[in-house]
Amino acid sequence: MHGGPSTCDDAREMSETPTIPEAYPRMVRPMKGRLVAGVAQGAAAQLRLDPVVLRLAFVLLSVLDGLGVLAYAALWMFTPREQYEGEPPGRDWGQAAAYGALGMALTAFGWITGASTGGVGTWSIAVGGIGTLILWQQAEPGRRQRWMTDAVRQVRRSWIRTAIGLLLVVTGAIGFLAAQGKLAEARPGLVFTAVVVGGIALIAAPWLTGLWKELQKERRERIRQEERAEMAAHVHDSVLHTLTLIQRNSGDPFEVTRLARSQERELRNWLYQPKADADASMAAAVRRVAAEIEDEHGIPIEIVCVGDCDLDDGLRALLQAARQAMVNAAKYAEAPVISVYAEVEADEVTVFVRDRGKGFDMDDVPDDRMGIRQSIIGRMERHGGSARVKTGPGEGTEVMLTVKREQS
Amino acid sequence: MVKVLIVDDHRLFRSGVRAELGPQIEVVGEAEDVESAVTAIEALKPDVILLDVHMPGGGGQEVLRRVLGSGSQVRFLALSVSDAAEDVIGVIRGGARGYVTKTISGRELTDAIVRVSEGDAVFSPRLAGFVLDAFASTEAPSIDPELDSLTTREREVLRLIARGYAYKEIAKELFISVKTVETHVSSVLRKLQLSNRHELSRWATARRLV
């Protein structure tokens, strides 16, 4: 998939929502009606509160040693933006200015009265509070299921690791300074640094957000382009190529049919089959074996698979035997089509290979014909399975192969 | 004579089907999208409609919804190139009495049309496989046990269809009459259409995302 695991995740979320509404929707930053980055609005929607309440809370907390700013910044980082197509709506700068003014007034009041210097206590609350906010953000029941997917798990893990790491570093630094008794001395410096950084951030903010928006837009565009390119590449590599080959071989009906059939099969797999590894999954392996025989012998094989499981040694033997049965049908049956049916049940796997061809008499098969006796029946018995051949002259042939599944 | 209307957005395909159908079939008309299909069904009163799944204007499911929704008893046989579980289960649950893929031979298609016109269901091996898979994979408690599970006999019949057996061969294999085979298949079709376990549709959708 393109666009990394996050797009993959999104796609899954989108396609699941119509049937099962998520009980605990993930917090997002809405684009519409946001003042800065939509954090307060998003959090308000999550907590079912008026955004004004949260905005005021952030302003008030900002006055207390800048806690609100920290919390806001952290939530900004950890909250995904709402999916939004098209030109983002503008902000209500008047309202934003009002909150800014309120914040500044409160800060001035705090500086003058000294009420805002809460001491070391506020910092621990800050660290704990922000940590909790992030955890609360991360913990959501649906998420755990998605953690099951390996790739996603990796990403989530590293997120959590980063968060925990940050938490430890900050706590450690504060602890160190506190133990040295330097916290009180260091604080004015820290506060000024924060003020300078904040000032620069404020000045650069419009430019940074513009850059960010550009990046997002470019990313969306790139994903679309990549999808289009993949589609085009696929059509070019396979379909156009086959069409050229068909024109070149137009005098050879066998080759034309074979090419068309092989292209059809390939396109169908690409469009409709769940992506699966033919070296690991039973259904995919059956499809691959059948595809190889189709290509070799130019006879269509209809495959129906019910259920799926991982391959084990018994199943690999079963596949070999099934392959031999398909080869026999393709070579000797003179049937227009071969049907293959594979069913995975809880304790065993069965494969049927059937043709409506001319059939044969089992007793007439010479002992040295390895195909049936050794490659099919013998192989299945060696692996604790069984093979049954049902045939007769003019009745077609059906080979039934069964093997017990290894219990993992 | 069975009166048939062919609904498909590919003109070449429509004329191909027309040429291949046996003498028991009379093609009374063609339609190329949802609108013209609905109008033609009203006007021509066919016995069976050969319905394509993907078409402009909402596809086969939209035709099913509009025609069957108005109380019509006309019978539909879905005919599509698509192998996707979503499409197959979708049109069957929309009310089609059968699903065959476009690779089917003219003779088999003629048989299928006659069968549908007589009120029986037509399952391709792949559809049978999907049904077995869908009914096996759901573990959630069922609301209506009669509708939400298959009987042993129905399972046997479906397995044989999936293995490529014709109804006559199934009858011989199970020592029952062809009529009984048809009854079992119709009963599976009814379950597939009426079972209100939404997992069926969800299973079909989820299958693409694995």
Automatic annotation (TrEMBL), chain B:
Entries under Pfam families matching the protein: GerE (PF00196), Response_reg (PF00072)
4-aspartylphosphate, modified sites: D52
The Response regulatory domain, residue ranges: 3-117
Keyword Iron among UniProt keywords: no
Keyword list, A-Z: DNA-binding, Phosphoprotein, Transcription, Transcription regulation
Segments passing through the bilayer: none
Family matches, as Gene3D superfamilies: 3.40.50.2300
Record domain HTH luxR-type: where: 143-208
Name of this protein: Response regulator
